[in-house]
Amino acid sequence: MARSILHIDLDAFFVAVEQARRPELRGLPVIVGGDPDGRGVVATASYEARRFGVYSGLALRTARRLAPDAIFLRGDFAEYVRVSKQFHAILANYTPLIESGGLDEAYLDLTGCESIGGTAPEAAASMRARIRAELGLAASAGIATSRLVAKVASDKAKPDGVLQVAEGTEAAFLAPLPLRALPMLGQSTEKRLAPLGISTLGQLAALADSALEGLFGNHGRVLGQRARGIDPTPIGHDVRAKSISREGTFAADVADPEHLRAVLRGFSESVGADLRRDGRRARTVSLKLRYDDFSTVSRSLTLPQPLSSNEAIFEAGTALLEKLRERDKRPARLIGIGVSNLVADAVQLSLEPAPERKQESLSAAFDRVRRKYGTRSLQTGRTAFDAATQDERSVFEKGTGLSSQMK
Ligand code: TTP
Ligand code: MG
């Protein structure tokens, strides 16, 4: 049976939120970004402002030149996150199979959900009406047999529209569109096809598999299928790691609880950063200790509320450490902390600090440990391998791989 996939995306999201709470801004060229005389870029522009050639990512100064009469707003990220949560909460009424694509977009698998929201077009009409009534926002939707075609269709439906691509017409729908209309088709692919005179998805779809494989290797065949609108990727199917953990082996076994906690803090920050970057929370925190005789113990704590903050991970880890040490105070050879039982955050919190900042805080945490306990007091995955001499390497355990499981 063909699937029924819906992709929904709010129109001019940041600007639309501003217009919803300040109706006098409706129908005007409005641009959300930073200081128009500063060095920032446009986050988004109202459709009225887009007519002047303003788009997301454009330098604000250029936007000011193109649309001098536009209204420039600094934006209020906390408010956008709040509205985004409400948007996702509305969608959750229509199917359990939802995958958030960011603050203002989501994929819904509506296959077999007729008893909940009616046919896919009926469900689309109903959710768009609720989004308008409750949030004052316009949403566009695409309905198709795959997430790929649904996404392209919602783009085509903008602003404030719905487009359904009927089963069997996917390839014909995509054929006249430029290559870049296909999600994830990058500039490098475009550049390799240009010399062959290929600029539309129809031309790409017409290439034989052998030609596609010659051009793009293993990926070629999939690219050809995508150009024909074939994309079996399920909705809400999480291919990411089921747990995130860090562990490290001490150069000399450690009994000092302060030292153990300091290391745990660094690992908690690193695990927390990965978790939040993935837009996920964890229900379970696990701690692992290995003693000098290589015996290994671990304990887990499952919490009523899923967590994602460094502090919460660290606190749970500390509690587990104390529990383990009540029974056995022998020095530790290895310590590790991990989170599992991961759930999606309804909203990908893109307001988290940039990755550089997180990396900095992790390095800072290890610097603290090393300043206090010695440079080579702790070796973890990459660092161990990069920094250690051959001799030293033999004393180190397996690294801190993202996917290394803790039980
Ligand atoms: P989009 O859905 O890409 O754009 P949009 O909602 O503003 O407009 P439309 O969907 O109608 O084309 O992005 C959602 C929000 O994400 C957008 O309102 C602002 C933010 N954003 C940025 O901050 N920078 C960017 O480069 C982009 C593309 C979006
Ligand atoms: Mg949008």
Please provide a written account of the structure.
The chain is an alpha+beta fold. Among the domains are: 57 residues, DNA polymerase, domain 1, CATH 1.10.150.20; 154 residues, DNA polymerase, Y-family, little finger domain (Dna Ligase, domain 1, 2-Layer Sandwich). 42% of the residues lie in helices and 21% in strands. The strands form three sheets. It has a five-stranded mixed β-sheet. Strands 11-10-12-9-13 form a five-stranded antiparallel β-sheet. Helix 13 packs antiparallel against helix 14. The radius of gyration is 26 Å and the shape is globular. It starts with a strand and ends in a 14-residue tail after the last helix. The site of thymidine-5'-triphosphate has 15 residues, from strand 1 and helix 1.
Helix content: 40-55%
Order of adjacent strands in the largest pleated sheet: 5-6-1-7-8
How would you characterize the largest beta sheet?
A: 5 strands, mixed
Q: Identify the CATH homologous superfamily of the domain at 243-396.
A: DNA polymerase, Y-family, little finger domain
**Cofactors, ions, other ligands:** thymidine-5'-triphosphate, magnesium ion
Structural class: alpha+beta
Q: Label the overall shape.
A: globular
- Name of the CATH first level of the domain at 243-396: Alpha Beta
Secondary-structure element series: EHEEHHEHEEHHEHEHHHHHEHEEHEHEHH
How many strands? 13
